[in-house]
Amino acid sequence: MLSFSLRSGSSGNSTYVGTSSARLLIDCGLNGRQLARALSVYDLDPAELDAILLTHEHVDHCSGVGVAMRRYNLPLYLTEKTYLAARSSLGKIDESLVHLITPETPFAVRDTEILPFSTPHDAVDSVGFRVLDSSGDIGVCTDLGYFSRDVRTALCGCRVVFLESNYDVDMLKTGPYPRFLKQRIAGRRGHLSNEEAGEAAVWLVRYGTEALSLSHLSENNNNPGRAMVTVREALLKNGIRAGQDCLLQTSPRYKCSPIFESASLQIETEGSSNISTKRAESNRLDLRGCHDVKR
Ligand SMILES: [Zn+2]
Ligand SMILES: [Zn+2]
Fold first, then answer.
1. d(CA 130, ligand 2 centre) in Å
2. How many CB atoms within 10 Å of residue 143?
3. N or C: which end of the chain has fewer CB within 10 A?
4. Does a structural domain hold residue 33?
5. Ligand 2 centroid vs 122 CA: distance in angstroms?
């Protein structure tokens, strides 16, 4: 299992997830050149991808999907509603490459099983993805108004989670956005705040998550320092030390994040010989236990 964020935020989102049998790109909000360049950072080639999975039709997630499909003949997995909503952004594509999926119904790319799950967001049928792998599952979950019961159940026990931490509550409140936009962002179908990400992080780590990448940070209403401090403090209040009990990082806006790699989970920083390693035994829990937790 290997995963990293290529880009994260309103100017473009894309996450790479590699399992023992498949190379997947979740969302592609970057152009063809940016995609090739970002993957090459970790010696990967877009032509070797097995599929693109699309979470929802917003342009920061789908602007580069059509180009990548045409250039590399890549299959696309998305829900029917999202397909209809994203069609005009995809341009002319080979429809035989389109695979329609249903939220909460697992599907497979090669031998890799993937669970798409509904997320509360102002898109027609937005989903997050849980990618299953023998060395630990990976969850990608951005663009959600709140950490719903269904979302937490879907992510429960994931070893690595790319989790939205979109805005700082005070920065949004005092910032320049018009009132309707502030309400949209903070609403139940908008985005997750740092505080909410902190609560979600506590829950996820309690149920076995070993590494978190805070993602989709707002450029105007957040910064990596604030997101890290807020989530780190929430963890600490609950006896969880970031860096020791779990790994915590942010997904950069314009460049690749460090890689999360199993079997011993580690962060390897691009171009650096410094490797911070957290040796962790997999402690995945029985998913049935997740239903008993109070919201
Ligand atoms: Zn987005
Ligand atoms: Zn969105």
1. 18
2. 27
3. C
4. yes
5. 7
